[in-house]
Amino acid sequence: MANKRRRNASQSENSNNKIKRTKFTLDSVKLPGITTEGVVLVTGAGDVGQLGLGPDVLEKSRPALVKFDHEIVDICAGGMHTVCLTKEGKVLTFGCNDEGALGRVTEGKEDAEFEADIVELPSKVIQVSAGDSHTAALLDDGRVFAWGTFRDSHGNMGMTLNGNEKLPYEIIKDVHVIKIASGADHIVFLTHFGDVYTCGCAEQGQLGRTSERGSSRNARSGMGKGQIAKLLQPSMISLKPSLKLHFDNIWAATYATFCRVASSGDIYVFGLNNYSQLGLKSQKPHFMPTLSKEFSKYKWSSITSGQHHTIALDEEGKVYAIGRKDYGRLGLGADCEDAAELKLITTLEDKKIINVACGSATSFAVTSEGDLYGWGMGTNGQLGTGEEDDCEVPTLVKGKQLQDRRAFRVSSGGQHTVILAKSGSNNNQGDTVI
Hints:
- By secondary structure, the protein is mainly beta.
- The protein has helices spanning 2-12, 15-23, 225-232; strands at 39-45, 59-66, 72-77, 81-86, 91-95, 117-119, 125-130, 134-139, 144-148, 150-152, 155-158, 165-172, 177-182, 186-191, 196-200, 235-236, 247-252, 256-261, 267-271, 286-291, 300-305, 309-314, 319-323, 339-344, 353-358, 362-367, 372-376, 391-396, 405-412, 416-423.
- Strand 7 and strand 8 form a beta hairpin.
- The longest helix has 11 residues, at 2-12.
- The two termini are 38 Å apart.
- Mean pLDDT is 91; it is low at 1-22 and 426-433.
C-alpha cells in the first residue's frame, strides 16, 4: 500500500500544489500524422497470419502488398499480429488471436486470422498501439480501449482480473488521454494534464510505480488477486511531489518507458537497462522514473526501442543508437561495441530521417525522400532485403512493390515488419511522421 499512500500524498499535499497541477494542460501532442493514406507492405514471418496475405503465404523476404478495401493512414506491428488504422478511424487487425490480440471473434471462421477485418469500437480512433499479445486504441474523445492480454515470467496475467479480454474493453476511465504507447506487455497513457499512467507487467520496472519487491504478481506485499489488480489497473507513475513534473510525450520500449518533461525536454526513463539502452550508467532495472542525462542531451522527435537497444530520432532528422550490438541492430558497423552512450549512425548522417522503428533485434529508418533502410537481425526476412542475413549497417530496402512508391512509416514486430507507402507520383510528405 506504500505506493498508493505516496500517490495520495502527492495529490493532496496542499491546495496550492493541486491548483498548479490542474492548471497545466496539453492542447496537443505529436501523434503520427494520419492525414496521408498509403498502401500496406509486409515482410518477414507470416506463419500465424501477421502478414495478412492469406493462409498460403507463411514468409516473405521482400515487401509484399496487402490488398485492402480501406485507405490506411497508420500501422502497428505487434509480436505476432498487425494493426492498421483507416482514414475513417476504423481499426483492422490480422494475425495470431490465441490471446485475443485481434479484438474480434475468429473461432469457427476459416482463415479469419490470416485476413484483415474490422474491430468494433464506439467512436473514431486516432491512434493505435500493439504489444506481444495486446492491442490498444485511442479514441477521438480521449477514451482508450484495449484487448488481448499481458504476460510476465509466470505466464498469462490477463488484461483484467477476469483474464484475457478478447473484445475491446475500456481500460482506463475518468481521465482524458491524448497519447498511448505499448511495450511488449505494458501500456503507457499520457493525459490531457501531462500525467503519465501505466499498467501491465512490472517485472523489469517498466511501470515506473512499483518497487522491485512489489513488481511481481506474487509479491509479499499483496499476494494473489490484490497484487495483480494493482498492476493491471492503470495508475500514475511515482514521482516526487516536489518536482512538479508534467510530461508532453511518451514512448514505450519492449521492457521500458521514456517520458519527456514538458518544460525542459528532459527525458525520464524506467525499466530494463541491462545494455544501457535507457542511457543510465547502472545496468540494473530501474523501477522508478529516473532522469536520463544521456537522453536529455538532445531534442527528440521520436524514441523507439527493442529488447536491448534504442534508436532515437532528433528534431534535425539525425538518428542515434544505444545498447546491445549483436546482430547489427545498432547500425554502427561490424566492429562496433555495445554502446553505453548515444552514437550517431553516420551512414545516415547525410539524409533527413522522418520515421524510425525497432523490432526485437531490428531497426529501421525512413528518409524524407521515401527510402526505407533496415538493419539488424534478418533471420525471418523481416528486414525486407530479400536475404536472411543480418545487416550491420543501414541497408536500402528494395523490391518490386517499392519501385514506384515512397515509404513514409514503418513498424516492426517480433519477426515481421509493416510498411506504409505512397505512390511516388503524388506522395505528400508534408505530414510530420514520428
